[in-house]
Specification:
The structure is a single chain. The N and C termini lie far apart (about 20 Å). The chain contains no helices and six strands. It has a single domain, classed as Sandwich (Immunoglobulin-like), CATH 2.60.40. It has about 70 residues and is mainly β. The radius of gyration is 11 Å and the shape is globular. About 15% of the residues are buried. It has a six-stranded antiparallel β-sheet with strand order 1-2-6-5-4-3, with no helix packed on it.
Length: about 70
């Protein structure tokens, strides 16, 4: 199966599988493009601690996770 997977640990780490690209990276947010939608993560001091083939790990003080259908 070619599914997306999102795993959230407390409010300080999120792992996303199925990432195609980083769409936006600004102060306080990161928007990631997946196959059928995008995911916007908002918070303080967000960093991309890992980015490998289709997988991203974001760390920081996370406030919200939004699904943006395009």
């Amino acid at each position: 199966m070619n599914e997306n997977r999102i795993e959230i640990s407390d409010n300080n780490r999120i792992i996303l599988d199925g990432i195609e690209s980083i769409k936006e990276f600004g102060e306080g947010y990161v928007t990631l493009k997946l196959k059928k939608y995008s995911v916007k993560v908002e918070g303080n001091d967000i960093t991309v601690s890992e980015f490998t083939d289709g997988c991203a790990v974001l760390e920081g003080q996370l406030f919200s996770v939004s699904f943006l259908y395009v």
